[in-house]
Amino acid sequence: MTELPSARGAEVGRRIGVGLMYGLWKPRVLGAWRVPAAGPVVLAVNHSHNIDGPMVMGVAPRPTHFLIKKEAFVGPLDPFLTGIGQVKVDRDTTDRTAVSQALGVLREGGVLGIFPEGTRGEGDFASLRAGLAYFAVRGGAPIVPVAVLGSSRRGGRLIKGLPPLRSRVDVVFGDPFDAGDGDGRRTRKALDAATERIQKQLTAHLENARRLTGR
After folding, report:
1. Are 130 and 162 in contact (CB under 8 A)?
2. Rounded CA gap, 69 and 91, in Å?
């Protein structure tokens, strides 16, 4: 039996995230009320800054368990990330333990955070992996798109890959939607079709978030 990520740990992580994010940057959160108050949910987050995960973890209205690449679990970060309920995933293989833990989070009515692009890039949802569709359909969870839009200023970065300290970072939550077509099929063809539907929804949300925030 796979041990599930700690729900209590994720709540602790949320509190740490709140303090850190509001201490170092100026988050502006829009639409957090759109996240369902109970039941399984998948947060699909664009990924352009290293702070995207901690930022969403801190400002989301519910504790979130993110799927995080195993390379991040180094040294003291390993027990820390595990302790705050995050899920270690090996992206080079079908990580059955991570899949089981992620589905377990949804089965228990929790919130799973996913970067559907897989790695940090332009943050524009241009290339999606099928994993997002798989978890949403198999876990019976609606997807809430989340756009994290960092400062557009180029200067002032102390650390590469991070927005300048004390700059505004917008986090925009979108309307929840179902990835599947209603019949619950999990064939490769069905998941490919779901991934296409998801991509359209996420891209539309990102465009809307940029209009809304002027980013």
Report:
1. no
2. 7
Query: H/E/C letters for each residue in 61-110?
Result: CCCEEEEEEHHHCCCCHHHHHHHCCCEEECCCCCCHHHHHHHHHHHHCCC
| pTM for the whole structure | 0.91
| Residue found by looking up tokens 């099928």 in the block | 130
Count, in order, helices (H) and strands (E) of the chain: 6, 7
Q: How many CB atoms lie within 10 A of CB 106?
A: 21
Q: Which residues pair with 177 in a beta bridge?
A: 143
**Spatial distance between the Cα atoms of 73 and 81, rounded to a whole number of angstroms:** 7
Q: What number is the average pLDDT over the span 55-64?
A: 96
- Write out pLDDT tens, residues 109-144: 999 999 987 655 555 565 566 788 989 998 999 999
CA-derived radius of gyration, the chain:
16
DSSP state of 34: G
Q: What is the rounded distance in angstroms from the CA atom of residue 83 to the CA atom of residue 12?
A: 9
